[in-house]
Amino acid sequence: MNSSARERYSRQILFPGIGEEGQQRLLDAHVAIVGCGALGTFQAAALARAGVGHLYVIDRDYVELSNLQRQWLFEEEDATQALPKAVAASQRLAKINAAVTVKALVEDLNPRNAEELLGEAGVILDATDNFETRYLINDYAVKNEIPWVYGAAVASYGLVMPVVPGTTCCLQCVYPEPPVGAQPTCETAGVLNTITSLIASLQVTAAIQMIVGMEVPRKITTVDVWTGVMRQVRQPKASEECSCCGRRDFMHLDGRRRAPISLCGRNAVQIHDRARPLDLRVLEEQLTPLGTVRRNDFALRFFLPSYEMTVFPDGRAIIKGTTDAGVARSLYAKYIG
User: Fold this and answer.
1) pTM for the complete prediction?
2) In what order do the strands lie in the sheet with 54-59?
3) Residue 136: in which H helix or E strand, if any?
4) Are strands 229-234 and 292-295 parallel, antiparallel or unpaired?
């Protein structure tokens, strides 16, 4: 650690829980953030300021005006340009701490690319909006013995749970199946930016504890910032009957559970059935006679009277205007093939 780094992180080094040795571990650390929305942008900014040396920001989506209320790294210009969130975040992080290596990954985390996207991470932070991706992270982390931190927030309520394979229970132990029935989302219940920043702060704290070698408290934390109620319960012990950490059946990582995703807080469905590289310039020429098209280096947006399609170079698409997977598939087949 050079003198400039010692000065920059001096207040953090003074903290007994970190010290100079802990700070060096942070500088050497590799952290993957899956999702770059309300939780992920705060996580990335906090970790960059703390001096985590290598950040992998993974997100499949682009910046919209409604994101700016709670997604901490974005500005109005990012929404105007419809920049991919990972790209916009990396540009801002470079101005926060140029010494941090940030890799922007405009990708949908899935069983095919999990090893490629997460393979260098020593800690994984969940900033996603759906249980399918969280189960995939859980499978990958347990299989490879990588600690990760689950977090979720909606309305004024949030939850945090650290997962340390071999020490704590895993996500599948607590939620053997996804919650049944309609669940509140940011679109249906709204969300306060104070709960997202608080949950992200708790997740980042757990990640720093993991990096510096401290034993992470084995607790599930729930918070409602509107009522002021905060609760902590001890995590249950890992279950021998758990399909993931008990029987080591990694069904999500193996790709045996995969479906179109209705995106949280968005009247939209993501189609990601298969990788199929697309030339967005050619696609722009094909779609221009049929509707309004906007293209940048990262994605193509196609506007129809009732729908909006955002198509990425890997063939993935987000169809906005429906939560019906059948309708989304039909539109994809009609216009993309």
Assistant:
1) 0.83
2) 101-106, 54-59, 30-34, 123-126, 148-154, 157-163, 219-224, 229-234
3) helix 131-144
4) unpaired
At 248-297, the pLDDT tens digits run: 999 999 987 655 555 655 688 888 765 678 889 988 988 898 889 999 88
Domains of the chain: 3-234 (3.40.50.720), 261-335 (3.30.310)
| Region label for 255, one of left (φ > 0), alpha (ψ between -120 and 50) or beta (otherwise) | left
Residue with tokens 């193509």: 300
Residue 18: per-residue pLDDT: 98
pLDDT over 50 at 182, yes or no: no
Closest CA to 218 of 176, 172, 163: 163
Q: In terms of residues, how long is the chain?
A: 337
> Residue 28: left if φ>0, alpha if ψ -120 to 50, beta else—which one?
alpha
Nearest CA-CA partner of 193 in 120, 290, 245, 265: 265
Structure tokens at 30: 């590799």
Between residues 224 and 325, the one the model is more confident about: 224
Q: What is the pLDDT of residues 106-119, one digit of tens each?
A: 988 889 899 999 99
Distance of alpha carbon 151 from alpha carbon 159, whole angstroms:
6
